[in-house]
Amino acid sequence: MAILVIAEHDNTAIQASTLNTVTAASELSGHGAGDVVLLVAGSGCAPAADAAAKIAGVSNVLLADGPPQDNALAENLADLVVGLAGDYSHILAPASTYGKNFLPRVAALLDVQQISEISAVVDSETFVRPIYAGNAMATVKSADATKVITVRTTTFDPASAEGGSGAVEPVDAGSDSGQARFIERTESGGERPELTTARVIISGGRGMGSGENFDLIEPIADKLGAAMGASRAAVDAGYVPNDWQVGQTGKVVAPELYVAIGISGAIQHLAGMKDSKVIVAINKDEEAPIFQVADYGLVADLFKALPELDAELAKIL
Amino acid sequence: MKVLVPVKRVIDYNVKIRVKGDNTGVETANVKMSMNPFDEISVEEAIRMKEAGTVEEIIVVSMGVQQCQETIRTALAMGADRGIHVKSDEDLEPLAVAKLLKAIVDKEAPELVILGKQAIDDDSNQTGQMLGALLGWSQGTFASKIELDGTTAKITREVDSGLETIEVDLPTIVTVDLRLNEPRYASLPNIMKAKKKPIDEVSPADLGVDTAPRLQTLKVEEPPVRQAGVMVDSVAALVDKLKNEARVI
Ligand SMILES: Cc1cc2nc3c(=O)[nH]c(=O)nc-3n(C[C@H](O)[C@H](O)[C@H](O)COP(=O)(O)OP(=O)(O)OC[C@H]3O[C@@H](n4cnc5c(N)ncnc54)[C@H](O)[C@@H]3O)c2cc1C
Ligand SMILES: Nc1ncnc2c1ncn2[C@@H]1O[C@H](COP(=O)(O)O)[C@@H](O)[C@H]1O
C-alpha cells in the first residue's frame, strides 16, 4: 500500500515543510512501504499540484480543488483525508500548525493513535520522537493498521523540488461541515526569510528591553540575510509578533547559524533551537544557561555588542 | 452554559528531566508534579467566562493516578465548581483520553470543552482535535483569544504565519495557547473552600472505554548532548571565528 502525504501549500506554491515530509515518506518507502502520493487540497490550488508533481520521489498527486478545502478548515480537510485513507498504509503531514490542526482528527476518525512529530524513521512501524521538550527521545512502535504521523521538519532534509514527473489526478473535494468559517489571517510577513527555512537566524529575548531595540538587530540581519526570531518572553512582552517565537511551543528551527541575544536559555527555548549547526550567544550574565549549548559565547552588554557586531560585519561583507 | 476543562498532571515545567538508567522512561520518583501549564490557562479562561456571566458551571476532569485529585483540587481552588477523576494506573494515550472525554461529554452535555494545546510531557498536541472529531464538533486550536457570541465563538489562532481568525458553531472544542491569559493564583480562602467541592471518581470501565495502548515504547534515551563551545572576549574575535573557523558567514 502507498503512503499519503498531505501537502502544505498556499494554492500556488508548495511549502518547504512538505519537502521535508516527503523525505520522511521516502525513507518509509525504503523500509518496504509503497509509493509516495501527495494530496494537494485547497481552492484554486492546481498550480500547487503542478509544483507538487515535480518533487523528487513523489509518484503521483491527488488534487482536491474546491471551496470546502479553502483555508484548510480542519473539519473539512480531515473528512476528505479519511475518505481517501483506505488505500494507504501511512498518512503523513508536517508538524507545523497546519498539520497539527487537522491530522489528529483523521487519526481519531480512523481509530488510530497518531505518532506526533517524529524525528527519525526506524522501520515502517517504528519511529523516534522527542518528548519532554526534547529532553528525552522515545522510540515507539505502532500496532495500528494505518500509521498516522506528523513529521518534525528540521530533522529531515528537504526533498528536491525538481526532478519528479508524477501525474496529477483530480479527486472530489469533499463537502463543507458548515460548522466553521474562515474570517481572516494577519501575517506579520515582511521581506525577511521565513524562520523555519532560514540559513541564519538572529533571535532577541527579554534582554532586548523593548520592541524598538530590535532595530539594533535589523542591520545585522540584513547583512547576514537572516530571519529574526525571539524568545517567548520577548513575544509576551509585546516586543515582536507571536510568529517569531522559537521553542517548545513556538517554532522548531535548525539553521546553520543561530544567534541568541539577551536570551537566558530556558529549556523551552532550547527545545526549539538546539539542533542548529552553530549557536552563538551574547548575554551579559556569564552564568546564563544558553552558554552551555553555545559554540561561541560572548559575555557583553548587547547595547554595546550589537552596534560593534554591525560594524565588524560591515568590514568583511 | 456548562464548560468542561480537562487538566493533566505532569512533571513541573521547571524540573530538569532525567532519563531512567534502564531506558524505560523518565524519572518520576520524588519529582515535583503540577498542572500542565496550558491547562491552567484553560481553567483561567473558563473562570473568566463564568465571571462574565456566560458560563454557569465549570467541570474539571483529570485522568490518571490517584494524585490527579490534587490537580483537580488546584483547579477547584482557582474557581472551578466540581471535579471528575477518571482513575487509571495505566499510561493513557491521547486517543484513549479523547474517548474517555467523549463519554463524559455525552453524559454532562457541556457546550464548550477547553483543553491545553499540548501536554508538556508527551508533547502530543492531539487530544482536543481528536475529541472534536469523535464528537463531530467543530474546533478552534491554538487559541490566543476566544469571543463567545450566543451560538457561535470567534477564535483567534496562533499559526506559523501569524494570526488567524475563525468562527465556529457551538458546541465546540477549543485548545489554548500560552498568550490567551495569565492564570491566577488561588487565594487561601478559596483553597479552603475547594476542599468541600465534590470530586466524582470513575474508572475507564465505568465509562465503557477500552484504553489499551496502541503504541509500544521500546526505549527512552537521552538526546545527543551538545558540547559547550568556547567563550570569546570581543565582538571582533567572534566575527573572526564565525568567518574563519565555523565558516558560516
Ligand atoms: C509551557 C511553557 C512553554 C514555553 N515555551 C517557550 C517557547 O516556545 N519559547 C521560549 O523562548 N520560551 C518558552 N517558555 C518560556 C521559558 O520558560 C522562558 O521564560 C523564556 O524562554 C525566557 O525568555 P528570555 O530568555 O528572553 O528571558 P529571560 O529568562 O528573562 O532572560 C533574559 C536574558 O537577557 C539577558 N540580558 C538582559 N539585559 C541584557 C543586556 N543589556 N545585554 C545582554 N544580555 C542581557 C539576561 O542576562 C538574561 O539571561 C515556555 C514556558 C512554559 C511554561
Ligand atoms: N490524562 C489527562 N487528563 C486530563 N486531561 C488530559 C489528559 N491528557 C491530555 N489531556 C488534555 O489534552 C490536552 C492536550 O494533551 P496532548 O494531546 O497529550 O498533548 C492537555 O492540555 C489536557 O487539556
Which of globular, elongated, flat, extended, rod-shaped describes the shape of chain A? elongated
> Biggest sheet of chain B: strands, sense, closure?
9 strands, mixed
- Derived from helix and strand composition plus strand pairing, the structural class of chain B reads alpha/beta
What structural class is derived from the secondary structure elements of chain A?
alpha/beta
- Which percent range fits the helix content of chain B? 25-40%
Summarize the structure.
The complex is a heterodimer of chains A (317) and B (249). By secondary structure, chain A is of the alpha/beta class. Chain A contains eight helices and 16 strands.
What does it look like?
The complex is a heterodimer of chains A (317) and B (249). With 317 residues, chain A is an alpha/beta fold. In chain A, 25% of the residues lie in helices and 27% in strands. Chain A is built from eight helices and 16 strands. Chain A has helices spanning 16-30, 46-53, 74-84, 97-109, 218-224, 232-236, 267-270, 302-316, and strands spanning 2-6, 36-42, 60-65, 88-94, 115-118, 120-123, 126-131, 136-142, 147-151, 167-170, 180-187, 200-204, 227-230, 257-261, 278-283, 296-299. In chain A, strand 1, helix 1 (16-30) and strand 2 form a beta-alpha-beta unit. The longest helix of chain A has 15 residues, at 16-30. The radius of gyration of chain A is 21 Å and the shape is elongated. The termini of chain A are far apart. The mean pLDDT of chain A is 96. Chain B is α/β, with parallel strands linked by helices. Chain B contains six helices and 13 strands. Chain B has helices spanning 37-51, 68-78, 94-108, 127-135, 188-194, 235-245; strands at 2-6, 9-11, 33-35, 57-64, 82-87, 112-116, 138-149, 152-159, 162-169, 172-176, 199-202, 215-221, 230-232. A nine-stranded mixed sheet of chain B has the order 9-8-7-10-6-1-4-5-11, with helices on both faces. In chain B, strands 2-3 form a two-stranded antiparallel sheet. In chain B, helix 2 (68-78) crosses helix 5 and helix 3 crosses helix 4 (127-135). The longest helix of chain B has 15 residues, at 37-51. The chains are: A alpha/beta (317), B alpha/beta (249). Chains A and B meet through helix 3, helix 4, strand 5, strand 7 and strand 8 of A and helix 3, helix 4, strand 7, strand 8 and strand 9 of B. Strand 8 (136-142) of chain A pairs antiparallel with strand 12 (215-221) of chain B, so a sheet runs across the interface. The complex binds flavin-adenine dinucleotide and adenosine monophosphate. Adenosine monophosphate binds at residues 6-8, 36, 38-39, 61-64, 92, 94, 97, 115-116, 118-119, 122, 124-128 of chain B.
